[in-house]
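Milestone 3.1: sequence recovery, worked example.
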């Protein structure tokens, strides 16, 4: 189980330990259930959220399966992340491909508070119609992250579909995103 008090290395080690089984489960889920759902959808893009608990680490993973078009029904995008509780609210750790390699990204609770304050509220978006919380909504609408600066031990910034993210590139395998700007 991943908690906020864990070190960066401990979080990364747990995520790496879970990935082979999680990816195998995700492929099975696509073949068994989601391929048909995505192929018969009348509206694109379409998506599905699923939850998986690791038998090794007891970590509760959230997976977003996203299909842009009908011909991609067999190969939807899969995003893997874990939510955690902190004193300031909920944050998330995600396992993403950045620069061609898998990286662990920590989104602070402050990040999601700013996302709500600077994007959701000014645009009067009702996230309840998506049947998800603020973290799920963020990952659903911001699947691609483009980093502009990613030197180790330096501030990094990037953009996605709905704004810009700012944080720190902690080491070669770990990013911490601290805030969001619309």
């Amino acid at each position: 189980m991943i908690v906020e008090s864990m070190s960066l290395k401990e979080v990364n080690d747990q995520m790496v330990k879970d990935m082979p089984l999680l990816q195998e489960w995700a492929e099975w889920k696509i073949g068994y259930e989601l391929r048909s759902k995505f192929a018969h959808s009348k509206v694109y893009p379409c998506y599905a959220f699923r939850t998986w608990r690791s038998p090794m680490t007891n970590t509760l993973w959230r997976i977003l399966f996203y299909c842009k078009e009908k011909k991609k029904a067999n190969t939807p995008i899969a995003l893997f992340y874990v939510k955690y509780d902190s004193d300031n609210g909920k944050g998330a750790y995600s396992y993403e491909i950045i620069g061609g390699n898998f990286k662990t990204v920590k989104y602070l609770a402050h990040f999601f508070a700013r996302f709500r304050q600077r994007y959701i509220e000014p645009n009067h978006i009702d996230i309840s119609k998506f049947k998800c919380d603020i973290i799920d909504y963020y990952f659903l609408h911001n699947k691609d992250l483009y980093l502009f600066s990613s030197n180790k031990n330096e501030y990094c910034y990037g953009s996605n579909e709905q704004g810009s993210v700012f944080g720190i590139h902690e080491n070669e395998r770990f990013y911490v995103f601290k805030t969001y700007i619309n």
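The first strand starts at residue 46 and ends at 53. The chain is about 30% helix and 40% strand.
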